[in-house]
């Protein structure tokens, strides 16, 4: 197996003394898991931030072997990790993608949608703008994995209605997509919703 592509880093966890196992979202190959050697070193550590856009080479000699990956940074989400709301939004969007999609199945709309969501989180003037984009990404993911279309947002949806819609979608995601691991992954969403609820008014 050999993949050379742009990829969004969705998750990274330590493996062994110096390495990490990452999950990478690509347009044409879907989600790919791979081992990154030296991941805890000074050079690679800044690359292994969820949400980062990378150029990757993923290679495996056999189908039974865990692939290895080489990474090159294109766009870093690191500058936004110190901001509570953007950090929570990035963490949830990436955790949702990593936890719900099967590996090796291409979802080009989700790759584009995740990229657009992360861009909105990082560059919209406030969470009022990007929270609607995030809700749209959740609805897109539900549709792409076979759970039908979530109700469309009303044309003049206020902030309270958007929070209600996010809460409703969260129940669907937790009960249907993450039933076996809802506590682990949905914790990221709980943090996000708690921070969004602190924004008041329309």
Automatic annotation (TrEMBL):
Superkingdom classification of source: Bacteria
Organism ancestry: Bacteria, Pseudomonadati, Pseudomonadota, Alphaproteobacteria, Sphingomonadales
Residues in coiled coil: none
Database matches in Pfam families: RecO_C, RecO_N
SUPFAM superfamilies per the UniProt record, alphabetical: Nucleic acid-binding proteins
DNA replication/recombination mediator RecO N-terminal domain boundaries: 1-69
UniProt-recorded name of the protein: DNA repair protein RecO (Recombination protein O)
Gene3D superfamilies: Nucleic acid-binding proteins (2.40.50.140)
Organism field: Novosphingobium hassiacum
GO process terms (BP): DNA recombination; DNA repair
């Amino acid at each position: 197996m050999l993949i050379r592509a742009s990829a969004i880093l969705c998750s990274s966890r330590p493996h062994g003394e110096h390495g990490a196992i990452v999950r990478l979202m690509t347009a044409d190959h879907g989600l790919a898991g791979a081992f990154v050697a030296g991941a805890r070193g000074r050079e690679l550590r800044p690359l292994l931030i969820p949400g980062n856009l990378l150029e990757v080479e993923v290679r495996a000699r056999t189908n039974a072997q865990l692939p290895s990956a080489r990474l090159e940074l294109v766009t870093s989400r690191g500058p936004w990790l110190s901001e509570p709301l953007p950090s929570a939004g990035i963490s949830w969007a990436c955790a949702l993608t990593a936890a719900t999609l099967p590996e090796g199945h291409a979802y080009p709309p989700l790759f584009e949608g995740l990229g657009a969501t992360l861009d909105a989180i990082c560059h919209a003037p406030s969470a009022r703008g990007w929270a609607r984009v995030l809700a749209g990404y959740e609805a897109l993911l539900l549709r792409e994995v076979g759970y039908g279309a979530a109700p469309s947002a009303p044309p003049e949806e206020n902030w309270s209605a958007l929070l209600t819609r996010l809460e409703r979608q969260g129940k669907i995601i937790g009960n249907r997509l993450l039933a076996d691991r809802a506590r682990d992954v949905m914790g990221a969403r709980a943090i996000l919703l708690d921070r969004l609820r602190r924004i008041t008014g329309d």
